[in-house]
Structure formats: C-alpha cells, structure tokens
Amino acid sequence: MSSSDGFLTSLQSIQKNLFRIGGPILLVFGVVSCVVNLIIFTQKNLRKSPCSIYLIAVNIANFLYITLSTLFLILSVGYSIDLTTYNVFMCRFYYYRSYLFDILSAFYLILASIDRVLVTSSNARTRQKSTRHLAHICIGCGTLFWMLFHCHALILMDIQEIAPGYFICYFRAGLYVVFTGYYSLLVKAITVPLLMIIFGIWTTRNIRKVRQRRIAPVIMNPAFANPEDIEPEKRKTIQATTSDSDVERVRRNHLNDIENIIPFVLTGFCYIACNPNATLALWHFRIFFFSRLFHTFAYQIPIRQPSRALAFLVGFVVTVSMAAQILFQVY
C-alpha cells in the first residue's frame, strides 16, 4: 500500500468515527433545539402573532430535515448503511425530502422577514396586512408550490453503478446535473441570503423612521454655547448656555482625546523614523486605537469606572513603550 493510499484510508476512518460519535450528538442537539423552539412559539401569548406562525413552520421543517436527512447521512457515512441504494424509491425519496425541507426552512424565514417589514411600516394599511390568515395562506401555498417544484427528484434520481459492485444514488446524467448545480447556486446560495439581507435592511429602516418620529418632538430646548447659533425667532425662549451636561461631557471627552492622541501621534512619527519591527509597530498602533475607541464609548454611554481609567492606562503604556524604544535607539 502506498503512502497516499494509507493517508486516504486514515481520512476515511476519521470521517467515519466523526459521524459515529459526533453525528448522534448533533442530531440530539438539533432535535432538542427544535422542540424547545416549538414549545416557546406555541405559547398562548405568542402563537397569535403571524411571525410566530412562520417561526413554528421553520422549526417543523428543520425538525423533519434533521430527523430524516441527517439520520440517513449518519447511517451512510458512519455505519456504511446506505439506505438509498436499497431501492429506487428510497433513493428518490431521500433527495426529494432533502431538497424540500431544506428550501422550506429558508422560505418560511423569508416570509417571517416580510412580516417584520409589514409590521414595522409607518403606513397603517401596510401594518394591517400582517395577519394570521395571510400567514396560513402563504405557508400553505408556498409549501404546495415547493412540493410540486421538487417532484423532479422523484423522477430523475437513479441508482447508478460507478464501479463493479459499488452503487450510489445520483442525478441522472445530462442536463439534470447542470440544472441541480445552478439551482443550488442561484436559489440556495444567492437568492435566499440576498432576500434575507434586503428584508432585514428594510425592517431596520422602518424601525429607524418610527424612532425618529417618536424622538423628534422631545427635542424642545437644544443647548447653544453661542447666542448667534440660535435661530432669531427662538432667541426669546432659548438662552445660550455653557453648562449643559451632555455638551460638557462631550467637551471633556474631546479634551481627553487631545491630551492623549497628540502626544501619541508625535511619538509615533519619531518611532517610525527609528525603523522599528513592522509587526510590533502595527500592534502598538492597533492597541492604542482600540483603547481610545473604548475610552470614548465608556465616556459617552457612560460605563462605570475603572473602565475609562483602564482604557487611558493602556493607551498611555503604548505611548511610553514607543518613547522608551526611541530612547534606546538613540542612546
């Protein structure tokens, strides 16, 4: 036996053991997760929501996909029991349900995303379209469509002998192989993620519009440090002030940045002139940048001490480290 044959045999053994040990574990975790989700979404206060109905359908599709397709895969790879080669019906039925439940899960998620777009719309009539009745119709019609669409797997899958005495369940040769390849690429790999992204961004924009409408009336008395910044018609009701708490917090944050960033930049130029190790210099700059970024967030949110003190100390240590290396290089 050559070394390459031995290596391939080792890989096959590792794969078989992984499916024997890890496969049942993943199967149990998947089933338990789907059952827990179904218990949650079927609660009385949740199952009235159209979105919950879509998520219930998602978990049912995932449950069927895990218990049927994954179980067949574990038996085939882990225990060399390939049920799809026993007869043509098992071969075709395996691929049919794999295609069906795989796309149904994604399809129901897209319906849930569309429902979120409807619910978050600023238009009252659009929000009224999110109903349980529409959810049931979409799920029923969509399921029927995909069941009929994937009937090709019940006709064009065959048991083929690729070597003497070795049979596999595979696509019928010809255009059907090309079709399945493009289908997996265009529908599953491109269209489904693209639609999820589009509806997710759409929902986010709707939520921001609603928040802006709610927040806008609250801003009644903005703070101005200079009288000339106030609109003429509002100068009688708004007075210039330098004691606004929010403005003062931002000002103190800016002062702290000036006190730390300017020395760092000047030290950094001298440090680069000394031709330091590129990786070490890059990590100095990265650590300082993230320490100041965290310091800004900690100042503005605000986060309790010693969060700001630690962020300041990290940036200070970076500056001192560069200064020390400059001195060592010069002297």
Description:
The chain is mainly alpha-helical. The protein folds into 2 domains: 12-171, Rhodopsin 7-helix transmembrane proteins (Rhopdopsin 7-helix transmembrane proteins), CATH 1.20.1070; 245-330, Membrane associated eicosanoid/glutathione metabolism-like domain (Four Helix Bundle (Hemerythrin (Met), subunit A), Up-down Bundle), CATH 1.20.120.550. Helix content is 74%, strand content 4%. The protein has 10 helices and 2 strands; from the N terminus they run ααααααββαααα. It has helices at 3-41, 50-79, 88-119, 124-128, 132-149, 153-156, 175-215, 245-273, 278-300, 307-330, and strands at 157-163, 166-171. It has a two-stranded antiparallel sheet. Strand 1 and strand 2 form a beta hairpin. Helix 3 (88-119) runs parallel beside helix 7 (175-215), helix 8 (245-273) runs antiparallel to helix 9 (278-300) and helix 8 (245-273) runs parallel beside helix 10 (307-330). It is flat. The relative contact order is 0.06.
